[in-house]
Amino acid sequence: MAGYLLYQIQSNCVFFERRLFVRSIHEELFISAREVFLRRRAFTLIEVVLSAAIAVFVCAAILKCYTIASRRSFYASCSLSANLEAMKKLENVINATWKYTAGGTNIFIPSLTNNDPENLEMPVSGATNLINCTNYTTVTQVSTNPPYVMITVKCVWYYNGLGNFTNTIACIRGPDL
Questions:
Q1: Cβ 90 vs Cβ 153: under 8 Å
Q2: 34: Cβ–Cβ under 8 A, 6 or more apart, which residues?
Q3: For residue range 85-101, what is the model confidence (pLDDT) as tens digits?
Q4: Around Cβ 139, how many Cβ atoms within 10 Å?
């Protein structure tokens, strides 16, 4: 009974709206519970400010996660496209004819090992946001008996001011029989 009364002075006197009322015990229970409800009905300014601050932090975190996810998604698509460019160049070199000669070191057509500047094959709108890449192809003789070469293709591409990235593909190939 005393827990509900916030401003109890004596057992049957309560301050309510800066006026002194004298009540019976039954009225005191009913009115004091109503007073508690009326006093707890609204938020204080501190509660409103803290809830607004929490809402701002949550929205900022969601926005930051969205931008990070979109940046990582774009990086992944660039990396996949660079990998496909390197694979395309590797297939061109692998499909070239190589007839083994006993003392021959120049096994492929020299035009296959040139540095090829290209654009990453990505869906873009307009021609202003193309991403350039360069394929560096090297052919290294691994062994002469049996004759094997290692073909390495490096696709170097630049990403949004973060620097150059390299995707490398290598395979070993023998001569055509």
A1: yes
A2: none
A3: 999 999 988 887 776 66
A4: 20
Q: Which residues lie below 8 Å from residue 154, measured CB to CB, with a gap of 6+?
A: 86, 135, 136, 137, 166, 167, 168
With CA atoms as reference, report the closest residue to 165 among 98, 87, 86, 68: 86
The string of pLDDT tens digits covering residues 65-79 is 999 999 899 889 889
Q: Alpha-carbon distance 31 to 38, whole Å? A: 10
Exposure on the CB side of residue 125, measured as CA atoms within 13 A: 0
State how far the Cα of 74 lies from the Cα of 161, in Å rounded to an integer.
13
Q: Which residues does the chain have with pLDDT short of 50? A: 1-11, 13-22, 29
Q: Order across the sheet with 116-119: list the strands.
A: 116-119, 132-144, 147-158, 164-173
**Residues near 168 by Cβ (< 8 Å), separated by ≥ 6?**
86, 152, 153, 154, 155
